[in-house]
Amino acid sequence: MITTTDLTKVYRSRGREVTALDGVDLHVSEGEVYGVVGQSGAGKSTLIRCVNLLERPTSGTITVAGQDLTALAGRGRGAPPSGSWGRAGSALRQARSRIGMVFQHFNLLSSRTVRDNVELPLEILGVSGRERTRKALELLELVGLGDKAKAYPAQLSGGQKQRVGIARALAGDPKVLLSDEATSALDPETTRSILQLLRDLNCQLGLTVLLITHEMDVVKTICDSAALMRGGRIVESGRVSDLLATPGSELAHELFPVGGVPSAEDRTVVDVTFQGEAATKPVISQLSRTYNIDISILGAAMDTVGGNQVGRMRIELPGRFEENVVPIGFLREQGLQVDVAAIADGPKTAAATRQLLKEGAK
Amino acid sequence: MTWSEMEPLLEQACWDTLYMVGWSALIAVVGGLPIGVLLVLTDRGGVLQNVVVNKVLGQIVNIARSMPFIILMVALISFTRWIVGTTIGPEAAIVPLAIGAVPFFARLVETSVREVDGGLVEAVQSMGGSTWTVVRKVLLPEALPSLISSATTTVVALLGYSAMAGTVGAGGLGDLAIRYGYQRFETELMWITVGILAVVISAVQFAGDLAARSLSHRGRSSAVPQLVLPRPARSARSAPAAAATAGTTGGPADAEAADTEPAKAP
């Protein structure tokens, strides 16, 4: 539904060059909720702004719903300098009207009532007055604000404002919704209700949602797929369930951070990830009974990701890694994903452990 | 000088002032609004970023703003003759008044429009809005309360400028105060004129503030200090303002009631 190929954006200001996007290839399938995470300055905002060409990429292409937007932008006129709002031709403007966008700071017009705010995109599309009102009230009903049509944005709470923002983004019947940190200005409770709304819209309307966020909770709650950005590049991407099953996945670690250091030397620290069926099996007590070893739990996290129970646990086994190859093999047999955590006593043993680990996996 | 002698003079002066300020304010708004908006649009990061247009326009505005009004009026004499066919009278004063007020208002418009959140512009662009849509649906409506305040300031400044219009024989209240009050030692008439000017300016300011406030739908939190602070000032101001509205509708005869008191004092 959304595909970017080798997307690059370089800002030039006073002779200095800043590369915000460095060859980004993103693929968002139809009907999924795709989350891009990363720290501030990673290029997330630039990426999402490039998708509807609010920001013109320096090179690369963007295709939304089969339409090459970069071809519409008329790059022949020369991309305007950085920070420019830019001017758009009518073909691009038409394409934009079919992509909804939700903003962190809502960006509602304070001079218009809630209903008039939702009507704004319809006015731009040239929809007649009565039809606009009907559609706006219908959308406000959909986002649960049917009774606030005559209020002004200043009279609403943050969550309500974002609901208006979502209703407005849906006015043009878009197939794609872009969400630029839509929940970052909201409290946790409101964040949950807004995410629930986005999920509902995704299911009811078959809307493809591309969202950027710095909150891992957002990814955990609603995303089907996710990508991690750092320094203008996508360092990891894929379906969330696949990522969790990937050994050494940074995103999986970010989603379920488990801490804890070994209590003494001669211990093996192992990160175990449970998913799906394996999450319900009593594997730890089985392990303990079968091999007659004492296991201590250093850290653990459990959550529901995309409707699946997922957990991650850091456990400590007595003895060096060499002595624990068999119990670890047992855990693997149970369908669990096992990562041996980097061990505190020097890189030499860590490297040796990796070597052993590879052999063990064979 | 008796009241029956003063009354026709004052009435004529009021009408002249109203005529000059009214027309020049209208021209200032019609001319200054697009210039101010264009200054924002063509600025760095604007929708129509264009450094050359922005610099040229900004420089023209600066030059016009730097000119003292009395000099502008004299300097524009030949231009005025070309436009209205005469260099004396109220019509002749309107030309320099308008030319002085257009860049003044344009700068104020620029400041008001610049304060509109860039995110709103981005939102409308993401909906597929054109530059014209951005101006019409976002910049102007969102800046409206501030634009009204700017127009109020411009009208008040024009009232001040118009006092100098007597130099080209345009009449008006300022001219009356100088010719009769100063040059003929008619102190009483001068104070009446000063009183009328004060009342008119208060009325304009009050009406402008009221309109700006009633059009602003911003958050309660930001409105609270605005509503609380002017309260002591407003109660003091509302009395002459009420008289002023009566004065402007009922003619100078009604204004007499409010203005003879300070006149009797000396």
In angstroms, what separates the terminal alpha carbons of chain B? Answer: 15 Å
From the alpha carbons, calculate the radius of gyration of chain B and give it in angstroms.
21 Å
Backbone structural class of chain B: mainly alpha
**N-to-C order of helices and strands of chain B:** HHHHHHHHHHHH
Number of helices of chain B: 12
User: Which term fits the overall shape of chain A?
Assistant: elongated
- Mind summarizing the main beta sheet of chain A? 6 strands, mixed
Distance between the termini of chain A: 39 Å
Report low-confidence residues of chain B grouped into runs of 5 or more: 220-266
Percent of residues in helices of chain B: over 70%
Average pLDDT of chain B works out at 81
Strand content of chain B: under 5%
> What is the mean pLDDT of chain A?
84
Arrangement of strands in the largest sheet of chain A: 6-7-8-3-9-10
Largest sheet of chain B: none
Keywords (chain A): Amino-acid transport, ATP-binding, Cell membrane, Membrane, Nucleotide-binding, Translocase, Transport
GO molecular function, one term (chain A): ATP binding
Domain ABC transporter (chain A): 2-256
Protein name (chain A): ATP-binding cassette domain-containing protein
